[in-house]
Amino acid sequence: MHIAIAGNIGSGKTTLTSLLAKHFGWQPHYEDVDTNPYLHSFYEDMQRWSFNLQIYFLNSRFRQVLEIRKGGKTVVQDRTIYEDAYIFAPNLHMMNLMTTRDFENYQQLFELMAQFIQPPDLLIYMRASVPTLVRQIQKRGREYEAAIRLDYLKRLNERYEAWVSTYTLGKLLIIDVDPINFNDNPEDLAVILERTNAELNGLF
Predict the structure, then answer these.
(1) Which of these is catalytic: 32, 34, 45, 78?
(2) Quick check: pTM over 0.85?
(3) How far is CA 165 from CA 77, 120, 125, in A?
(4) What total of structural domains would you count in the chain?
(5) Is 78 a catalytic site residue?
(6) Is 156 left (phi over 0), alpha (psi -120 to 50) or beta?
(7) Beta strands 122-127 and 171-176: pairing type?
(8) Domain limits at 73?
(9) What DSSP line would sit under the chain, residue for residue?
């Protein structure tokens, strides 16, 4: 089975990926952050590096999805290929940080790739307000994320909500992050584990 966790920057995707993998004995697949050769450059000059970064992510996640389906194990994935295509790339284009020529090239490549992949069996969406995102981004202290603008996070949130409201590719579980602390509070984590289990059992 393929479980994927979606959500804005700082919503807690990586933390929840680790906790679910540990609890259920699943194999975690993390977003390629530390070895990403474009991420630092992108946050320094978004207009120059937006296309390069999105192509890198598209390639990386396409490979991940193919590996997940070939591997035959239950995998929990930190972020999906759909978020790049429906949220991050269109947002960069709308903010004039990616040219129309590059965006259309990107879209055509994604549409081609999408024909060869299966969507996750369960999508878990981490819904968080901008203040929560900012607090959690500051808490983890990645230097290159210090330059992220509030309007950038806000626009991403709006796109996430629009995407999730029309998501029909598979099962969907929405977790409101603002009122909980699943990393430090075992009771909050237990609720998420129960809800995840219920959604997965409903698949059969």
Answers:
(1) 78
(2) yes
(3) 21, 17, 11
(4) 1
(5) yes
(6) alpha
(7) parallel
(8) 2-201
(9) -EEEEEE-TTSSHHHHHHHHHHHHTPEEE----TT-SSHHHHHH-HHHHHHHHHHHHHHHHHHHHHHHHHH-S-EEEES-HHHIIIIIHHHHHHTTSS-HHHHHHHHHHHHHHHTT-PPPSEEEEEE--HHHHHHHHHHHT-GGGGG--HHHHHHHHHHHHHHHHT--SSEEEEEE-TT--TTT-HHHHHHHHHHHHHHHHTT-
Q: Model confidence over 84-129: pLDDT tens digits?
A: 999 999 999 999 999 999 999 999 999 999 999 999 999 999 999 9
